[in-house]
Design a protein that fits this description.
mainly beta, 140 residues, 43% strand, 14% helix, Jelly Rolls, five-stranded antiparallel β-sheet
């Protein structure tokens, strides 16, 4: 069965568009942060509060959406370099061994891997209300 020239041309154009888009657009999930929940423990002497400990892995070029934690968040960079900025504050570049604090009422405007070629990883301790979500999207 022979494909007519016009149809063959449309197929070639469609394949070309798919190939171009696949080289420009990242695969789904490829540039998203991976969060690993390490533990959550109630604070015995602070009723209604708990601590959650997570590891965040940023692939090259990964960035978080604008969000808040409704928690005190203590960040410790393990690998790579990350850029953080809270609403009303300056952007800061953090490297392994550096720390960062997020206030419970703060809006996290920038959270991203500083590199487009190397991954980054950091540890986070969140002191929050029992059962509260780790991250809450924000429109700020």
């Amino acid at each position: 069965m022979e494909i007519e020239p016009r149809r063959r041309l449309l197929i070639r154009v469609a394949v070309g568009v798919i190939l171009i888009l696949s080289s420009i657009l990242p695969a789904s999930g490829e540039d998203e942060a991976k969060v690993t929940d390490l533990m959550t423990k109630s604070l015995a002497n602070v009723p209604g509060k708990e601590v959650t400990m997570i590891i965040v892995d940023y692939p090259p070029g990964a960035a978080d959406p604008v969000h808040r934690h409704n928690a005190s968040a203590f960040v410790y960079v393990l690998e790579g370099s990350i850029v953080m900025q809270m609403k009303g504050g300056a952007k800061v570049m953090l490297h392994p061994g550096d720390t960062f604090y997020e206030d419970p009422k703060g809006i996290h405007l920038v959270g991203k891997n500083a590199s487009d070629t190397k991954p980054a990883k950091f540890l986070v301790f969140l002191v929050k209300d029992k059962g509260a979500p780790i991250l809450v999207p924000s429109r700020e």
